[in-house]
Amino acid sequence: MIADRGNDRVLLVDGRRRILWRYPRPGHTPALPFTYDDDVFFGPGWRRIVSNQEDQHTIQVLSFPGGRLLWHYGHVNRRGSAPGYLNTPDDAYLLPHDVVSVADAYNCRVLFISKRHRIVRRIGQTGVCRHDPPRTLGAVNAATPLPLGRTLIAEIAGWVDEVAADGKLIFSTRVPASYPSDPQWLGHGKILLADYAKPGHVLIMTRQGKVLWRYGPASGPGMLDHPSLALRLRGGLVAVNDDYRHRVVLVDVRTRRIVWQYGHTDVAGSRPGYLDTPDGMDLLPFRRALAIPAVRGVVLPRRR
């Protein structure tokens, strides 16, 4: 699943680069404007997705594969910090019990929002943009949920923090990246992180900031230009949103080579096979999809 930000759409593509599903449907006007979709993630059970529209200042929860707007938060094209408002939301995740977590980037806080539009928990102090977690945070670009209600936070100024469900700080680390983006917990004390820069990098590091693995050629076809998210796949692969080169790539961890990509390098477009500034993604496991009748019909398209 790819948040194709520059085309204001979400695509589900398979390993053969076929488009299996998209939102909004071609020729269909969405129930709420859907502009600058910065991220997309599946919710528990794979029947819903959540997307944050960063410059539109909204979050939308959609049914999958129906594509029906279930609920939303924020006001279209109106930033703010009062209840009901957001300022450049990033990395919205759908948690159990219809709660959405989001990095409310330039309000310098992480919010946990119920379906009834209530803020049920927050990390940071609204409008106080200073690194002193968990009391205050700098501008944030990620709030990745972890087991036991923990949250992994990326502060744009160069910090990764982990905060427990009770609000206590577990650790805060200055990271070896110019712009840390979307940290992912790998277990065993390891974190996968994108460095949103040119040339960009993807790295695996410890909680203490020690780099264990890094990918980031300085030039050539393998160079990354502002990668915003990296996810680990089975088989020793890492998927990367290579935003400004208009592609999603799979990198072999062992060889440090790109072995697959969707999108045409340095060419933005909307035709099949093209992307425009992809800035988010998630993975739909094939076996899980087959176990859900409505989703099975998407991943196994009818033969013509």
For the biggest β-sheet, the strand order reads 3-2-1-24
Largest sheet: 4 strands, antiparallel
| Radius of gyration, taken over Cα atoms and rounded to an integer in Å | 18 Å
Number of DSSP E strands: 24
Count, helices: 2
Q: What is the CA-CA span between the terminal residues? A: 24 Å
Shape: globular
Low-confidence stretches are none
Q: Could you say which structural class the secondary elements and strand pairing correspond to? A: mainly beta
Give the % helix: under 10%
What letter string, H or E per element, gives the SSE order? EEEEEEEEEEEEEEEEEEEEEEEEHH
Strand content: over 45%
Average pLDDT confidence is 96
Which features would summarize this protein structure in a list?
304 residues; globular; 2 helices; mainly beta
Provide a short characterization of the protein structure.
By secondary structure, the protein is mainly β. Helices cover 4% and strands 45% of the residues. The protein has helices spanning 286-290, 293-299; strands spanning 2-4, 9-13, 19-23, 37-42, 48-53, 58-63, 69-74, 89-95, 99-104, 109-114, 119-123, 140-145, 151-155, 159-163, 169-174, 180-187, 190-195, 201-206, 211-215, 227-233, 237-242, 247-252, 257-262, 278-281.
Give a written overview of the molecule.
By secondary structure, this protein is mainly β. Helix content is 4%, strand content 45%. The chain has 2 helices and 24 strands. The chain has helices at 286-290, 293-299; strands at 2-4, 9-13, 19-23, 37-42, 48-53, 58-63, 69-74, 89-95, 99-104, 109-114, 119-123, 140-145, 151-155, 159-163, 169-174, 180-187, 190-195, 201-206, 211-215, 227-233, 237-242, 247-252, 257-262, 278-281. The strands form 6 sheets. A 4-stranded antiparallel beta sheet has the order 3-2-1-24, with no helix packed on it. A 4-stranded antiparallel beta sheet has the order 4-5-6-7, with no helix packed on it. Strands 8-9-10-11 form a 4-stranded antiparallel beta sheet, with no helix packed on it. The longest helix is centred in the C-terminal third of the chain and has 7 residues, at 293-299. The chain is globular, with a radius of gyration of 18 Å. The two termini are 24 Å apart. The model has no long low-confidence stretch (mean pLDDT 96).
